[in-house]
Amino acid sequence: MITYAFRRFLGxxxxxxxxxxxxxxxxxxxxxxxxxxxRRLPPEVERNVKxxxxxxxxxxxxxxxxxxxxxxxxxxxxxxNKDFSVTQLILTGLPVSARLGLSAMALALxxxxxxxxxxxxxxxxxxxxxxxxxxxxxxxxxxxxxxPILTLLFGVYGISLFGHELSLPVGGWNGGxxxxxxxxxxxxxxxQIAVVSRLMRGSMVEVLRANYIRTARAKGLSDSRIVLxxxxxxxxxxxxxxxxxxxxxxxxxxxxxxxxxxxxxIGRYFVQGALNRDYTLVMGVVICYxxxxxxxxxxxxxxxxVLDPRxxxx
Amino acid sequence: xxxxxxxxxxxxxxxxxxxxVDARRRLVRNRAAMAGIVILCVIAxxxxxxxxxxxxxxxxxxxxxxxxxxxxWPGETACRASGHIFGTDSVGRDLFxxxxxxxxxxxxxxLVATLVSLLIGVFYGAVAGYxxxxxxxxxxxxxDILYSLPFVFFVIILMVVFDRNFxxxxxxxxxxxxxxxxxxxxxxxLSIKQKEFIEAARxxxxxxxxxxxxxxxxxxxxxxxxxxxxxxxxxxLTESFLSFLGLGIQEPLTxxxxxxxxxxxxxxxxxxxxxxxxxxxAVTLFCFNFVGDGxxxxxxxxxx
Amino acid sequence: xxxxxxxxxxxxxxxxADGDVHAVKDAGLSIQEGECxxxxxxxxxxxxxxxxxxxxxxxxxxRARGSVKFRGEEILGASPKRLNALRGGAVTMIFQDxxxxxxxxxxxxxxxAEALMLHRRVPRDDAQSxxxxxxxxxxxxxxxxxxxxxxHELSGGMRQxxxxxxxxxxxxxxxxxxxxTTALDVTVQAQILEILRALKNEKKTAIAxxxxxxxxxxxxxxxxxxxxxGRIVESGTADQVFYAPKDGYTRMLLxxxxxxxxxxxxxxxxxxxxxxxxxxRVSFPVKDRIFQKARLLRAVDGVSFTLHRxxxxxxxxxxxxxxxxxxxxxxxxxxxxxxxxxxxxRDLDAVAQSEIRKLRGDFQIVFQDPLASxxxxxxxxxxxxxxxxxxxxxxxxxxxxxxxxxxxxxxGLDGAWINRxxHELSGGQxxxxxxxxxxxxxxxxxxxxxxVSALDVSIQAxxxxxxRGLQAESQLALIFISHDLSVVRRLSHRxxxxxxxxxxxxxxxxxxxxxxQHPYTRALLSAVLSPDPRAERAKKRELLTGDLPSPLDPRAxxxxxxxxxxxxxxxxxxxQISTDHWVAEHD
Lengths: 314, 304, 587
What we know:
The complex is a heterotrimer. By secondary structure, chain A is mainly alpha-helical. A two-stranded antiparallel ribbon of chain A has the order 1-2. In chain A, a hairpin with a 2-residue loop joins strand 1 and strand 2. In chain B, helix 7 runs antiparallel to helix 8 and helix 8 runs antiparallel to helix 10. The longest helix of chain B is centred in the middle third of the chain and has 37 residues. Chain B starts with a helix and ends in a 5-residue tail after the last helix. By secondary structure, chain C is α/β, with parallel strands linked by helices. In chain C, a hairpin with an 8-residue loop joins strand 11 and strand 12. The longest helix of chain C has 18 residues. The model of chain C has no long low-confidence stretch (mean pLDDT about 90). Chains in contact: A-B, A-C, B-C. Chains A and B meet through helix 1, helix 5, helix 6, helix 10 and helix 11 of A and helix 6, helix 7, helix 10, helix 11 and helix 12 of B.
């Protein structure tokens, strides 16, 4: 088990490496540089500034310098927000995005699993069909449609629920207050709730057909014992494999959600940075996201091995 | 006389019931899938005939009727535009014809980008699966690495770098989906390779190229077709996502993604700007999903 | 005395996408306390569904009607709570495939103890020690260690013992055993049946033994019922059914089983040897973990034999003995590591790959699984024509069709089926297609790799007859690989017994069956079950202890020569003890 974890950990390093390299060269391939849109600087000043940012050196050397700084945790200065280094910017935005993203993931996993398992236990019933249809809705309607709809319903017009006025703020982070988080987290989680519930339903149906479930029934175990003790663990395996891509999808979705709800997370920095050709900022954000996903993949691999003893040998 | 004898022999041979015929029968019985196919054909037809279906050009701006509801729209609206059955957008263009032109672009993006991912994925997956061993392990390791990347980020960077090049958009979106296609093709190739009838063909003296062409490919086609059908909705959604961020289709061309994201912003004042394109897009995506699920059940039936 | 289990007028229907299936029709049976009822039938007879339905274990698209009384209480349609209390307590079940029938992520001890804790309210620690007792009872060595292992860490035979332990721990009145030994090797099957016999005799547990193998039933059952297409066609005591069967189907089943002393195979070896195999070795590197040095799996470890025209060499052995690998290496479908294969005097190593492709017309192979060896998307006519097209690409379509139809008729298939697909044909018919494909080039040698093992007994007999006929016609040299000694006997002139990649005995068919020398051969022969209840009851069994050792274990070769364990690299040599009889050294 330890060797397994160690090997998985080793495998994560080339991934990060590939990402950094890809991002670096892609940004540098862009025509134009970070200073193009500003006032034209006199040539010597421009040369000095470029030298200060190492932009006058050949590309491969810039790459190696960047790698070196990266190893020290230095993501470099932001080209646009010259008062801040990328690391600082990321540190302000990361807590917001992290809370948003992880809450959405948690909501998606819990609700999606509950719905999927519930649908699988009553396969082909009305409950099954209705849950799966709603799930399909969640997958096909993009977040920038659900966001305004939900905002209108709960934010602008407000809804009366059991006699209570339910009105949520339509934007702003407000230091992470719960009321401000409800709408963005829900909007962000919706597509993943749908995907997770479809995944769990399919996986659970598959597992319930297995021979060892028949043996468990032949032993006289009750339905709940079978599901909780025998089926759920095996059925969760595809879900654990999906955790990494799920986080990637949530991070992608957060770009839209942070924009719509005006949340000060790093997604916003990414979009702005991309449009402004702020190389270091974009790279920094991509590396940050990638590191998160890689970490989650690693944890997911460990979880998979815990759930399925057969894998520990590989 | 001989000719008659031969014809008689041919006629008495029983027609076999191939697996494709079985699958087609099962597909036809699946009402959701059949409805999906019909609706998709209708939408495709509408998209093709777009210019002939409306007297207005899709880029004809008319500042007199900006953001006006169609005549039949219920409730209070700031203004109404007669002759525009879906109303007008924020610069007075006819929404109906724009939705149809958007259909053209979105469907085109869907099909072309899926084709791109199909080509890359099939080639990569087939090579990895067929060669097997170390090469396969290495290639799949690369896929595992790339799988954990937030691919869309790189697409965004690409779109920024190359300044929203239209062709690049197709290629880039297709590049997002090729990973799963490669995995599926490789999985199928591996499992086919181990089947006994491949060994039997080798024992019979059939050459490797003939084996691939006659045995491997026909057996891999099924799941690939299913996955292709299920990839199109994802591609259309990715395009709409990019359009929302301003990185997708550019004016004056339009796609459903552009229309929906514009409409989302106008939801309170001009809801028809959101409703119609969103409806078309959602219905199309639903249909692709139903057809894809139907194909999957038809080709690989497990008693559900 | 009231019956333990009484089933009357049971009908089971399944609602499938393609229509309704009536799987069990008006079935009735009874089982008394302590009695063993054997239920025999081929595939599709409904024998398993009968019991699954009786105890409420049908799939969700199945419906059962009728009456099932356990100790006088009606349980068909009883509440889930009542059925759960019954199952695992008074009535337990053992299934066919122990790997997929055990929960992969639960430790073995926990799975066994679970039933006891639930039904007898035994606390966890007591249940665990009882589980250990049960493991000892089913003769699993190192029971304490095994308790904490997972199913995939155990071998097939051990897993089935675990299932038996799980089924016995609550002291049930009735055990339903559904094809419990079908997936196991013959020597392991013998051991498992021994345990079941002990259960019946010592603990007086009633057993419902479901099997397609008449020999298994003969050795265990007091009473027998024969099922066909969902109906019970014959029932009576074991002696009645086996010695005086009333129903035509039962008679046919009994006749189809190859018996000792039947017609010897036709003719015999003619002329010079076609094939000379000298000290063939095939090894694979195997790595358990990525940082480990690769170990060598010697699948075939020095096998030599010759083969003449018109002669049949039977190759027998259990899983891991290397018989399939041997066949494929000889046919040049697998690369060999050492040794020579000489065909018609030419060393095949010296022949170029393109030449070998042309030579393939001379030696062909028929595979075990008829459906898997045919491309499901090709009509059988095309599959049969494929070798011909590969060798002579310039033949016209009409000539091809004629040759294919002629071949189809030769193997007993209707020529009009030339456009049919494999899934439209039965297993036996598909195997005929496989034979047609192999024979269409008129080969000199045919390899049958477990060619009849996947077929029902009645069909097996037909296919074996077909092969005999084909051999007689063209003086075919035949290598017949099987784990089933009785089938091998019908066809073979000589028999070679393999164990872990080496030959332990090679003799003429007669000598091997009447005077086996090597302990492994004797165990194999002893494990062969005959449909003769009296003989089975009286039989003295020579059982091997434990499961087949892993081929990776270097000392495994000395299992029968333990006196030489001091030199673990020593390989027992093959010694000739008379003309036509070679035996490996043994204690």
